What we know:
- The chain is of the alpha/beta class.
- The protein has one domain: Dehydroquinase, class II (Rossmann fold), CATH 3.40.50.9100.
- The chain is built from five helices and five strands.
- Strands 2-1-3-4-5 form a five-stranded parallel sheet, with helices on both faces.
- Helix 3 packs parallel to helix 4.
- It starts with a strand and ends in an 11-residue tail after the last helix.
Amino acid sequence: MKIIILNGPNLNLLGTREKSVYGSRSFEDYFEELKEAFPALELSYFQSNTEGTLIDKLHEVGFGDYKGIIFNAGAYTHTSVAISDAIKAIETPVVEVHISNVYAREAFRHKSMLAAYCTGVIAGFGLESYRLALQYFERLKPKQIGFGIK
Length: 150
């Protein structure tokens, strides 16, 4: 089963950025660990700091071979109607993830523009938020993917 992890702005700085919030591991190192932990899944990873590039990637993987998208849109979560519309338009289910507990941070982070069109939201478990999302997809039978969303 093909699953893609999409990371948005500033997540390329994991391991060096605000270590008290985001930890000291790079995502690339963590991604290698995820691939080893989920050998039955065909995992890929994409990161961009650009809104339009993320939308293009959602359009590219949102129909067809990919059975799930794990998406940490970073700050675009709270501001992007365009990304929200892209998630709404595609068929592949999306799980919104956040490394930090966004509800324990600034008030503007408490609102997600994306959540209404996602299968679910996982936040506050550090990088393990991605593992939890992968466990969700791994445990579903193919015909169940996308059940109850959109």
